[in-house]
Amino acid sequence: MNNIYMPSPYKILDIQQVTNIEWLFKVEFDRADEINYGQFIQISIPKVGEAPISVTEFNAEEGWIEFLIRKVGKVTDVLFDLKAGDTLFLRGPYGNGFPFDEKYKDKHLVIVAGGSGCGPVRSMINAVHKKFKSVKKMELILGFKDTNCIIFKDEITSWQEENNLVLTVDKMCEGDSCDLGVNEGLVTQHVDKLDLSNIDDLEVVIVGPPMMMKFAAIEFEKHGVPEDKIWLSFERKMSCAVGKCGHCKIDETYVCLEGPVFNYTKGKKLLD
Amino acid sequence: MKISMSKMNFNESLKKLEEKYKIYAPKLFPYAGRFSDTDLVRYAEVSTIEEMVFDKKSDFSPKEILLPQSETMFYFTEKEYKEPDVEEKGTLVFLKSCDLHSVKRFDEIYLKNKFSDIYYSQRRDKIKFVIVGCKTGFDSCFCVSMGTNIPEDYHMGINIREDEVELEILDEGLKANFQGQDKEFEIDKVAMNKIELNVPEEINLEDVINLDLWREYDKRCVACGKCNFVCPTCTCTTTQDIFYSENENTGERRRVWASCHVDGFTDMAGGHEFRKKHGDRMRFKTMHKIGDFKKRFGYHMCTGCGRCDDACPEYISFSNCIKKLTAVLGGEDE
């Protein structure tokens, strides 16, 4: 029997500073062909610990994977001391990821992401944007705390060219300058800017902090979007990522096994 | 094969078995209990039947044999992960019916539930279970209500009598180790407990999440987690990495028991925490034991051993909590 907890070593190819507290790690990975959008990996650092981190981008042909990592915990603190060329240990991918081929293909896809919630959806947005995956139309609402927190600016600029993209910050600071056309207000305040004329064709993906997902889902329901067309990605504490440790369990559901992506019909019943 | 033999001969057999097996049973640790001048009964290695304590309830369950309180998953040497060596001896565990039923629940999570756990399975493969007949249970037991009073899937069963031991040996490998006189008997089973519960078959989380009854536990429960640690079916763990102070380049990854009542169980990096109120943690545990585990695996998790009631420093009774919940949900209790 193989040991499901045994991680494998991979080389860090590149590290980019995205904001003051968020860095983008590009890591060699030979199993990128197994990854689905929205899945996560356990990053393992011997003598420090493990942390579940969303795959933000991957390339099976070139054999790499990217993580957007915020410096907030024991494991991520150590990651920020690493350099390109250093070794990371990984196991996964885990979780279900977004059901793109089953549900979103050739549909009108709306993605609402808040803050580092952009991480889990970025690979899917890029796949659609680069026409690797086909949808009828893609619209995006991306929300951040303030303009300093905006991540993936270059990609946002290129996504904007071909897709309706609403970029918004909770609060505009004085002296803010951003040439991306930033709006002010919570993501829920911009739902009206989307084309919701053909709801039958629509699939809505919402990823962000728990409160943002809750109220965004309610807002889409108010606009007549049925629950089963709304998708959420949950974040929970995890130790094992393989259904043993119990930390991520909500009701009878293990977020690591059946999630992190849930249809809202299920997600709204996952109460803490 | 059903036989009876003297305790002296039984001990001789145990002595022979010790060559191949580590023998575990509840053992008395004088003055190690939670109050002054009280004893502790917990699972430990034994050599004779006299050391085994079955007339008192063991304070801790045999789960520490299946899933140690702290176990090393990997040793780190520089940048290498190395698994610890596997114990070669087999294990013989003397336990009561309720506790054997808890093993079935452990199997559900550690052998199944999509992935199989190698540490657990290596240990599990080497264990043989000896059921010890139980006639009456103890004050806080409710095994009959949970359906765990009838033993299933055991290798050997014994009744410990005044001057002899009755043995029902089902496992071929164990048969050769015991010689005695043929005897017809049944392994003792509890027919009735003092506590009888009418546990609802199906409880929906939405129906109970906002009930007032959980608020009682906000203050009463002090979130010490003792109920989780003594529970034979609490399977949660947390991984912990450490390095050795003598050489910081080496260390190990351990997994240790975790408690859904204790602070930090749901804390994510960045500080977000779910179920802050202790009453909500009580609800989470209760639903796992008599609600959501059944939704997932088809039967209730709680085995009715009552150890949580015995251990709680605030005298919270889990069986009472089930009664209250049943009453609110329209059952017959209370």
Topology:
The complex is a heterodimer of chains A (272) and B (334).
Chain A: E1 8-17, E2 22-28, E3 40-45, E4 49-54, E5 57-59, E6 64-70, H1 74-79, E7 87-94, H2 100-104, E8 108-114, H3 118-129, E9 137-144, H4 153-162, E10 164-169, E11 182-184, E12 202-207, H5 210-222, E13 230-233, E14 249-250, E15 253-254, H6 255-258, E16 261-263, H7 264-267
Parallel strand pairs in A: 8-9, 8-12, 9-10, 10-11, 12-13
Antiparallel strand pairs in A: 1-2, 1-7, 2-6, 3-4, 3-7, 5-6, 13-16, 14-15
Chain B: E1 2-6, H1 7-17, E2 21-29, E3 40-45, H2 63-66, E4 70-77, E5 80-82, E6 90-95, H3 97-110, H4 118-125, E7 127-132, H5 143-146, E8 156-160, E9 164-169, H6 172-175, E10 181-182, H7 205-208, H8 216-220, H9 226-230, E11 237-244, E12 247-257, H10 278-297, H11 307-311, H12 318-328
Parallel strand pairs in B: 2-6, 6-7, 7-8
Antiparallel strand pairs in B: 1-9, 1-10, 2-3, 4-5, 4-12, 8-9, 11-12
Overview of the molecule:
The complex is a heterodimer of chains A (272) and B (334). Chain A is of the alpha/beta class and 272 residues long. Chain A has helices spanning 74-79, 100-104, 118-129, 153-162, 210-222, 255-258, 264-267; strands spanning 8-17, 22-28, 40-45, 49-54, 57-59, 64-70, 87-94, 108-114, 137-144, 164-169, 182-184, 202-207, 230-233, 249-250, 253-254, 261-263. Chain A contains seven helices and 16 strands. In chain A, the strands form three sheets. In chain A, strands 4-3-7-1-2-6-5 form a seven-stranded antiparallel sheet. In chain A, strands 11-10-9-8-12-13-16 form a seven-stranded mixed sheet, with helices on both faces. Helix content of chain B is 28%, strand content 22%. Chain B contains twelve helices and twelve strands. Chain B has helices at 7-17, 63-66, 97-110, 118-125, 143-146, 172-175, 205-208, 216-220, 226-230, 278-297, 307-311, 318-328, and strands spanning 2-6, 21-29, 40-45, 70-77, 80-82, 90-95, 127-132, 156-160, 164-169, 181-182, 237-244, 247-257. An eight-stranded mixed sheet of chain B has the order 3-2-6-7-8-9-1-10. A four-stranded antiparallel sheet of chain B has the order 5-4-12-11, with no helix packed on it. In chain B, strand 7, helix 5 and strand 8 form a beta-alpha-beta unit. The longest helix of chain B is centred in the C-terminal third of the chain and has 20 residues, at 278-297. Chain B is globular and about 65 Å long. The mean pLDDT of chain B is 95. Chains A and B meet through strand 4 and helix 1 of A and strand 4, strand 11, strand 12 and helix 10 of B.
